[in-house]
Amino acid sequence: MVNLSIPRGTRDFGTKEAIARKEVIAIIEEMFKRFGFSPIETPSFENLEVLNAKSTYGEESLNEIFKLEGEDAALRYDLTVPLARFVAMNKDLPMPFKRYQIANVWRKEEPQKMRYREFVQADVDIVGTSEISSDAELIALGSFILDKLGIEGYEILVNDRILLNEILYLFNVPKEKISKVIRLIDKIPKIGSEEVKMQLSSLLNQKDAEAIVEFILKEDSNEKKIELLEANINAKEEVKKFKEFMALLDNYGLKAKVVFDLSLVRGIDYYTSFVWEFVKYDSNGKRLPTLCAGGRYDNLLGIFSGEKIPATGMSVGLDRVMDIIGNNELRKSYAQVFIAYIGDNLDYAIRIANVLRSNGIYTDMNITKRGLSKQLDYINSMGIRYAIIVGDSEKKESKLKLRDMLSGSEELLSLEEAINVLKGTK
Q1: Which terminus of the chain faces fewer neighbouring Cβ atoms within 10 Å, N or C?
Q2: Mean of per-residue pLDDT scores for the chain
Q3: Alpha helix positions (H), 171-309
């Protein structure tokens, strides 16, 4: 006997869960299209030379890549690097190029709650413009998606990696240590500020380590934080641009609170300026894994194309979204209606099914030799809302019985009348 199991960090999805996931994906994709994005598709694995390109994922992330044995290739870690490779290989793309892709990615990290080794990312990117309006569009899109999915109480954290670098220069962090310091700051939500201070002390003196953490974690309004930067750092133009960016977001009427979080990093090295995360907290105030995240990465595409091409992008974590909203659907079938028949009336049931299906109504029907009560039990077990019941008398009159399985109400109708009910037009 085979010891049946699935690999760590992966999951099976039964019919109920799969339907719920596909319906959420459909909502996400619909919102992508509403904002003017078009799809592309890329392979599930990429050449290692592409994934290992300088300044893409960073040293720690490179260890999380699933390499294919005997091949100079690996499963894709995200959808951004494949996009960069795609753009470099297709130089005739109209700019700005607005693409989306919804697909599986793989990361060889330690599985934990809401963190998996195989998961779905839903990515949108705008390539070919450095205008802050493109970053604002993406944040608005993320907010529209979460609102449409009924997720409440989330916050939108925003920061600017250029401003963060200037803060580190303010505290005399040498340029060669910036990357390591940033990676430690990124761990604050996971390991806490005190542990980060201690680890920073191994790179800097203790006084500077503590001062950096206290500065970036200082609680204050967005306006006060911007004033603090204006008074203390040299990047006046970048501060001005960030102020314009925050003002631009106000035009979208976002329901969520936008928080200028100086500690927000986004751990991947290729981000160059604005970064953001959509976060939610549990009942104990503990921050849950990020629901949506993104940022500007103006240097990544140049690694592959040989020319500087500005870009910004965002990813919606489907699996994390599903963990928040749950599988509320009771259905185990897409069918809107199930045709149950009594006696020798399979031919009549098939004719009804043909008409319903040609009218765009998802229709299932009995294909077993079982009585009506068993058929109705099956309909209930699948969570199908309506049942059509036909027997000798219904066939003779060219009628059918339409039963609402929720209320138990039943009507004798013509096929045309039943179609109107099922389409919601009666």
Answers
A1: N
A2: 90
A3: 178-185, 188-191, 193-200, 206-216, 222-232, 236-250, 300-305
Q: Are residues 373 and 282 in the same domain?
A: no
CA-only gyration radius of the chain, Å: 27
Residue 233 has a pLDDT of 87
**Is residue 4 in some structural domain?**
no
- CA-CA distance, 401 to 417, in Å (whole number)? 11
- What's 366's domain CATH number? 3.40.50.800
Q: How far apart are CA 257 and CA 143, in angstroms?
A: 10
Q: 109, 342 in Cβ contact below 8 A?
A: no
Element (H, E) at 340: strand 337-341
Helix (H, G, I), strand (E, B) or coil at 175: helix
Joined tokens for residue 413: 């109708």
Instruction: Enter the pTM of the model.
Output: 0.82
Long-range contact list for 247-250, CB < 8 A, 24+ apart?
248/132, 248/133, 248/136, 249/136, 249/139, 249/140
Residue 407's domain spans which residues? 337-422
Q: Which of 3-17, 121-135, 211-225, 296-310 is the most confident on average?
A: 121-135
For residues 208-227, b (16+ Cβ closer than 10 Å) or e, as one string? bbbbbbebbeeeeebeebbe
For the range 408-415, what are the long-range contacts, defined as Cβ-Cβ under 8 Å and sequence gap of 24 or more? 415/352, 415/355, 415/356
Q: How many domains does the chain have?
A: 2
